[in-house]
Amino acid sequence: MSSHETTPDLIAALRELGSATVYEAQGAYGALDSGIKPIHPSMCVAGPAVTVDTRPGDNLMLHYAMLKVKPGDVLVVDAKGFLEAGPWGDVFTELALQKGLAGLVIHGAVRDARTIIEQGFPVFARGLCIKGTGKNQPGRLNVPVTIGDVQIQPGDIVIGDIDGVVVVPQHDIERVVRVSRAREEKEQAFRAKIREGATTVELLGLEATLRGFDLT
């Protein structure tokens, strides 16, 4: 890795490498559960997390969080997996675009999906729901939140694409970029060898393992 790379460069590299490569390269951890999906398959996101711990069915803390976000941030919202309300919609998306927010990851639902997709704002959610929310309940901003079995700290790097969402600890970003690039280079070499006639059994050294089973 070149010594002149900055954090924005590293974040861009992780986005380009993709969530699956990053997840495997960093030791097969940090992936949010498969229920968190982009609302359109073309959506990609990468950036530092601004975390929100909010009550189910209430979006007051999202209004507060949008006062604090900076360009390039990814808003990560723990709405407790509640799917019978959509605390984020087209109006928040318009504000997010004005603020330069990189995207939203929400452990819950959103609404106005068609408009969000047309606006081109990356949203990763557990579901869609047309129902509205209250604006009454307190919550917390920039505290550790847990989605599935992954704890996300404020400032951790969030990478999302069609394969899913993975979180890279902020302090580990340089190492993860390095090992992710190495994994990508290895897989490129595998693909080249397959085009030349190699098999995955040969490339992965699976002959001995297969000989241990009666597969006939």
Largest sheet features: 8 strands, mixed
Radius of gyration: 20 Å
CATH second-level architecture:
3-Layer(bba) Sandwich
How much helix, percentage-wise, in residues?
A: 25-40%
Q: Which fold name fills CATH's third level, the topology?
A: Glucose Oxidase, domain 1
What count of domains describes the coordinates? 1
Strand content: 15-25%
Q: Helix-strand pattern, N to C?
A: HHEEHEHEHEEEEEEHHH
- Give the overall average pLDDT: 95
Q: What's the CATH C level? A: Alpha Beta
Mass-distribution shape: elongated
What is the first-to-last residue Cα distance? 47 Å
Low-confidence stretches: none
**How does the helix and strand content classify structurally?**
alpha/beta
Task: Look at the structure and name the CATH superfamily.
Answer: Ribonuclease E inhibitor RraA/RraA-like
> Counting H and I runs of at least 4 residues, what is the number of helices?
8
Number of beta strands: 10
